[in-house]
Amino acid sequence: MSKFFKTTTSILLLILLFVFSCQKKSDDKKDTIIEGKATIYVDESILPIIEDEQAVFETEYNAKLHLVSKSEKEILNSLINDTAKIAVLTRQLSTQEIKAFESKKIYPKTTPFATDAIALIKNKSSNDTLIAQQDVIDFLNGKNVPSIKGLVFDNANSSTARYLTAMAGTTIANQKNIFSFKTNEEAIKYVAENNGMIGVVGMNWIYQPPLNLEEYVEKVNVLSVKPINKESYYSPTQDNVASGNYSLARRLYIVNCQGYSGLGMGFASFLGGERGQRIILKSGLVPERTPGRKIVIRNTIIKDKN
């Protein structure tokens, strides 16, 4: 009888473990394309525009997105280590990174949705609002550039730092007069309060600063940049970024590693769709595709009655 009892107990435990395992898998996939909850890791340099997209997406669908703001390097580590499943980045995954995912049977889906710009900013006390791209490269390589007192990055592991150092073929580690903080907000505040320093930040933070940052943004000028081998200077306006005249531009991507039809797919579709692209256009960034315009033609003019 005791043996029968032990066998029965073991079978019941196995059944419970099986049910619990199935329930856990079900919980992991309880979000759909337009419903449920999901965590999205966002490159900190483009957080404002993704917050705008999130607000509209959540009002249209029964969905709740939790945005986690991190540096580019932290996000990539989280994706590879399976901590993050959905991420918004300023570059595509490299061949080596894709191979690392595929070795784990993970096949990321990458969707481009906008083009952003890296802005160079300076305290308004300076009348100089022009800078040559070659001067920035020279300064990053340790050369003396009279027009640059120091460069201020948002984060040593950020996409903006990676972009400029890759362009210059160097790193910012232990370099003289090159500083880094943790966020774009800290970098903007530092430049606003220190003359002669040039900040390197995501343009989205200048176009759409949070309320607590507006007073600092008003104290800085956005510099116009002269591309290499060109004579004209271009500011990071929507037109200049779209035309390719502004040389410090980068495309934005949403990377989905969920492996099923969840909110990662739904949010990517929203970003690339009519409503999401219109939000991009109004933000000052460049949408991946220009939203259509509806023109209503009337045969008669209706006068308003007072």
TrEMBL record:
Residue ranges of domain PBP in the record: 38-271
Protein name as catalogued: Phosphate ABC transporter substrate-binding protein
PANTHER family (UniProt xref): PERIPLASMIC PHOSPHATE BINDING COMPONENT OF PHOSPHATE ABC TRANSPORTER, PHOSPHATE-BINDING PROTEIN PSTS
Signal peptide segment: 1-24
UniProt-listed PROSITE patterns: PROKAR_LIPOPROTEIN (PS51257)
Keyword terms of this UniProt record: Signal
